[in-house]
Amino acid sequence: MFAKLEKWQRNLIVLWLGCFIAGVGFSELAPFLSLYVEELGNFNKGQLSLYSGVTYAITFLVVAIVSPLWGRLADRKGRKLMLLRSSLGMAIIIGACGFVHTIWELLILRFLEGLCAGYIPNASALIAAESPRAKSGAALGILTTGYVSGNLIGPVLGGFLAQVFSIRLTFVLTGFLLLIVFGLSLFFVHEDFVPASQKKKFPHHSFPLAQFKNPSAIIVLLLSTMIIQMGNNSITPIISLYVKELMHGVGPITIAAGIIAALPGVSTLLTAPRLGELGDRKGHGKILLFGFVFAVIMYLPQGLIASVWTLGILRFMIGISDGALFPTVQTLLSKDSPSSLVGTIFSWNQSFQALGSMFGSLLGGVVSNLYGYSGVFIFTALSLFFNLILALIFIPELHFSGKNKQV
Fold it and tell me: Which parts of the sequence belong to the Major facilitator superfamily (MFS) profile domain (predicted)?
């Protein structure tokens, strides 16, 4: 049955599994980094907070800087090569994290981890390039469910492994999981890659905006990725504290916080493929508009509620907006980019997503300190509303004339 599928469909199945395993591997350790840092020295509370923050942020910072370089190499050498580079490099480096004995060794490896990142955006770029244009939205929506579901399962699996074995062994097991991803990518992913001429691809621009049909739309789409991710991550530092406040410090607070943190991923998993397919049929501009408006409406009341159950419902709804926004932004980026620059643009997209993760965590902490928890949700809603205005002005697919009905 697998052999009877078209090549792009086989790639989608294999890369979905690869993104799922990668999502598990990348997410199962994040909640425990601060606990691992604590094992590496005798730190006071301030030092522990500082080292934990730097350990978390340094990977995103490096990803933001180097992703465009890897993207240009992907456009010259192929996206499959980048999949192999990322999965093998991450397998070795994350596995090695289980053997460090000082905070400085861990920081060096987290730095190197950022250099090796890029599996998921290159998988997205390969699917976007190899899939029929009429089906690319649905294909990217399906791919999104792979790493979203991996991210959902990762923390649960990581907590179980850390409890039963140790955090150190969890790093090693994660490295082994990523070796499986490397094997899947090496043997089962096929790419019909024909590099464009060097002159055609890279004239004299470090970022060749002149080769895009609508450079301003590309810039706004990249900013959208950053703002959407910034909104998601601005909530991360305070979600458990907010749940504790809503529950008045009584009851299974950590369990409730974990469930609420996972709810957006559940709804994204359920809705992203359907919204991608709907975008292919009805127009991706309509899906993007829906995602922004729905996100603003769902974020605003989250800081004004008095029940943890209401918060859970609203957080579930936010996952629907994520399922509309992330795959649609990727689809529009691929449709508006020359085929020779798909890898480049998806690597820039990863850079902006990494910046969103970094800025979101920082801004969430600052805003909650100044204006309380409700301020974080209002700030996020206003950021997304500003993003919507930019999109309405600069992205042609949101100008609903007759010629833009189907994109």
Answer: 11-399
294-319 burial code (b ≥16 CB/10 A, e <16): bbbebbbebbebeebeebbebbbbbb
Q: What is the pTM of this model?
A: 0.72
Relative orientation angle of helices 79-97 and 342-394, to the nearest 10 degrees:
100
Residue 163 neighbours by CB under 8 Å, 6+ apart: none
Closest CA to 177 of 11, 19, 10: 19
Tokens representing 9? 């469909």
Question: Does 152 share its domain with 279?
Answer: no
- In this structure, the answer to whether residues 249 and 377 fall within a common structural domain is yes
Tokens representing 167 are: 């955090």
pLDDT per position as a tens digit, 333-378: 888 888 777 777 887 888 898 888 888 877 876 787 788 888 889 9
Provide the pLDDT for residue 385.
96
Q: Are 171 and 40 in contact (CB under 8 A)?
A: no
Please give the single-letter amino acid code of residue 406: Q
- pLDDT at residue 202, as a whole number: 46
Question: Could you give the CA distance from residue 123 to residue 133 in angstroms, rounded to a whole number?
Answer: 16
Residues 233 and 159 in one domain: no
pLDDT in tens, 277-319: 899 888 999 999 999 999 999 999 998 898 999 999 999 999 9
- Listed in sequence order, the residues at least 6 apart from 379 whose beta carbon sits closer than 8 Å to its beta carbon are 234, 363, 367, 371
Q: Are residues 171 and 263 in the same domain?
A: no
- 274 and 317 share one domain: yes
217 with 349, same domain: the answer is: yes
Distance between CA atoms of residues 96 and 175, nearest Å: 8
Domain boundaries, position 336: 212-407
Summarised one tens digit per residue, pLDDT across range 370-379 is 888 888 899 9
Closest C-alpha among 233, 227, 381 to residue 293: 381
CB 304 within 8 A of CB 374: yes
Phi-psi region of 22 (alpha: psi -120 to 50; beta: other; left: phi over 0): alpha
164 and 45 within one domain: yes
- How far separated are the first and last CA of the chain, in Å rounded? 32
- Per the structure, the count of domains in the chain is 2
Q: Of 220, 235, 389, 226, nearest to 319 (Cα)?
A: 235
Tell me what the pLDDT averaged over the chain comes to.
Answer: 84
Are 90 and 217 within one domain? no
Q: Give a yes or no: residue 100 inside a domain.
A: yes
